Write the structure tokens for this entry.
Amino acid sequence: MIRATFQRLILALLLARSLVAAVQAQEVRPPEFVAVRVGFADRYKVGLWTPIEVTLRGGSTTAIGRVRANLSDSDGLNCSFDAPEPCQLLPGRETKVLLYVRFGHEASTLALELLDGRTILAAKTIDSTGAPTNDQFADALRPGQRLIVSVGKSSSGLEKALPGTQGQSAQNVVAAVDSLARLPTRWQGYEGVDIVVISTSKPEVFEKISPQNARIEALDQWIRMGGMLVLCAGSHAEEALHVGSPLAKFTPGHFEKTVLLRQTSGWETFAKSINPIPPPKPGEKVELPTAKLMEVQGKIVAREADIPLVIRKPQGLGQVVFVATDLDRGPIRDWTDRSLLIAAILNLPVNEQAGAADDPVQNYGYNDLAGQLRSALDLPRDVHLVPFFVVALLVIIYILLIGPGDYFLLRRLGRGMQWTWITFPTIVVLFAVGAYLAAYWLKGDQLRISQIDLVDIDAEGTARGASWFSIFSPRGESFDLSMRPRLPDGQPPKETSASLAWLGKAGNEFNGMYSRDKQNSAPLWTQGYSIASSLDVIRGAPIQVWASKSFTHRWLGHSPDLGLDVSLKDDEKQLSGTITNRLKGSDPQANGSIALSHCFLAYDGWAYVIGTLRPGESVEIGPTTRRVSLNTFMSGAPLDFAESPTAKAEKGPYDRGSRDMAYVLQNMMFYDAAGGRKRTGMANDYQGFADLSGLLKTGRAILVAMPPQDGSCRGDDLLRGPVPKPGESDSRQPLGNALDRHATLYRFILPVTPAGPAN
């Protein structure tokens, strides 16, 4: 009896314990991903850095973890991106995390993880399958589409005012965000953005942002990297532009006061409109709240009496366009020709038509100059591709030998057919060995690098660089990669911020980012790799045997010295003055001096041909300097006739099949000024920052030159190995050798004194 009672008691205790455990298990809730915001108002481009904002909800207990995003790159390999810092999730509370990724295909799958070490605390997979929801994000922009980010409580009506913003094939896509607080905290997040428009008509846009905010710093860096900001300030100009405000650093002058402008001919002339700006009501006068600036810096392109209306100010390698009134309120909002005004401010064609960006150019498979540059990088020196017809011919010969050839050989020798057990494998082995030896003879057993660098320096000290390179590996292995940027004097730039990532194929070709068959991207190598949260280091990038993979590196820094003495002025649209080369390098064999070759000076739609600028040499720019239209000059051979001042420049069709790296990059450098899509038949979207046509409109001159191509003046050094931690020795080794293809181009942005009194 006692034993039975004891057993019942034990069973009751076990049952109670099970019930308590079940209740506790029901109460333990893990953290979860609840929402994802991709790009700017769900607008983004593939193949470029894109901000994503992830919203997580805490579980039943406090958790600390790091968010990781996993995406396929353009080659189909898994690439992971980590958030810069771990996040703490409180029970039931929502937390937002911002990180930066690159989408490798227009139809992508985004896999999110919350990691505590190697433990996965939460996971979520989201596809780009149409309209954005909590479980989906929008499809990427189509090739060639321009992304314009409008910051304000409304989009300033840009969708209706801009040409080419309607329909799926719209050339201009407007993404509206409501305040500066929704912008990226790193300049890399703007890589897919063409223009940022900030409207100050509503104070909520800028009220809660301090001048030292990371978002203001990132915006400033992006402009200096070549971005374009349009700042509209009218009715609330005093609050938005006063000294110490976050937007004051972008203002091309000092704010004086707000005036009510009653004359509108300046706006109408600038927009080339025959229709006057209408008054609010019949019989009333037009009154436009207008910001008046003092000590204006930049080029005034529209004015009303003594009041500048539109000012283009160069800022680093980019520009700020200041508009002295609001475009989204008052009489301008109701003006029938507002689209003409906005197109003139943004420097966009009025009747722009979307190009056939979906169709690859001829049979090359790419529709963007970046795709042509990538193709040029993919074929290293001394590595030869076997034509398809040769492969097909060898396959036919092989089939004939192991079939009819083997049969007739044994019959002719009078041997029995049983000897095929020897002849058949012999033929197979000989062909296999022959194919192996031929592959080594054609492709070699050495690692090869194809690289081209572009280094830009302006007279105010801003320096930026870009490198595009491809690694060809004779064996399958993984690479830890980083870059060491260099200025023309061989020294690293100061205060550097950089990014390093894969370079995708911009087109519909096999493994292209817009390939219609996503399954074509399935790689033979299933191993993934990662890009560090600093965005400038790649870890474990796999490259298959006798295959290549392309990458791109960008950096922003400061140069203490331009290396040139410059005195240029505009004398009735004719450039005149002197340029002296005093560049000093780090190569002792060159006596510390650097000769610049293939030099030309771009200014106001013209190319002034200089040729070679030797160390210490001065060149006089004037009426006797040979001058060629920039369009004609850029249509010539790659930087060839700049060497001969007497050579005749002949305009020819753009070679869409060229594999010359310098030729392709040359046409990217002044894409818009030299004819753009109309001349090349392709877009310049994915590496559009290389185009400095916009700076030419701000009154700057740009000297293009090539340093010695002997390796002493390379823009970036490609390094292999793990990045050392503070206090550790640097064990990284440079990749490449003397047989590699490596070219470097320099551009110096030079000030020009305008004709007559300064604006």
Summary: Residues 388-443 form one domain. The radius of gyration is 31 Å. Residues 2-27 form the longest helix (26 residues). The longest strand covers residues 462-473.
